[in-house]
Structure formats: structure tokens, C-alpha cells
Amino acid sequence: MKFDCLLTNPPYQDSSHSEKKNTLWRKWISFNEKIVKDNGITSLVIPSSWMGSGPVLKENFLNNGELKYNLTYINRDECKKHFASVGSTFSYFIIQKKEYLEGSK
Questions:
Q1: HSE-CB of 94 using CA atoms within 13 angstroms
Q2: Contact present, 10 and 56 (Cβ < 8 Å)
Q3: Among 28, 36, 64, 71, whose Cα sits 20 to 30 Å from the Cα of 42?
Q4: Is there a contact between 18 and 60 (Cβ–Cβ < 8 Å)?
């Protein structure tokens, strides 16, 4: 079964806390490939650190150095107002599972 839209705020670390870093959310990004229909939308609220992580970007958003999909929206600062008491920064992004074409909308 595949879906038109996937919206999620995934867990950041497993309940056993066996991960050295809060990286469980990385596994959720790959669901775009597996369960979202072509032209479908994926949006995640995750730690802002994904933007500076070469492996996350390479594995999930790039194909030979070029964007795989249309990354239609990225927001880092807006999430602060919803997670004010949490000591981390969060962001959200929206991607469309559609081949990226430079200059397209």
C-alpha cells in the first residue's frame, strides 16, 4: 500500500536509548521511497541537525550530487515557538516524490 501524503513527527531515539546519538528519525526519511506514491508529499518535523549531515543528505535527498526530489519547503525557525521548552532545535521540510527539475514548481 502506498499513500499520497506522509506527515510525521518521528521518534528521535529508540526507547532503549542504545543509540549514541538521537538518530532514529533518520530511518523515517526513507519511508518516502517505500510508502509514498509518485508525486506524493512527505513532511517531517525532525532535529535541525539533518541539514548539516552529509550522510543524511546524500542517502535521502541526493543522487550523484543532484537533488532527487522537489524539496518544496524547508523551515528551521518556526518550530521554536512550538517546542520552546525543549533544548534542541527542530525544523520541518516538505518534499514531493517527483523527479527534481531545476526551475520547476
A1: 8
A2: no
A3: 64
A4: no
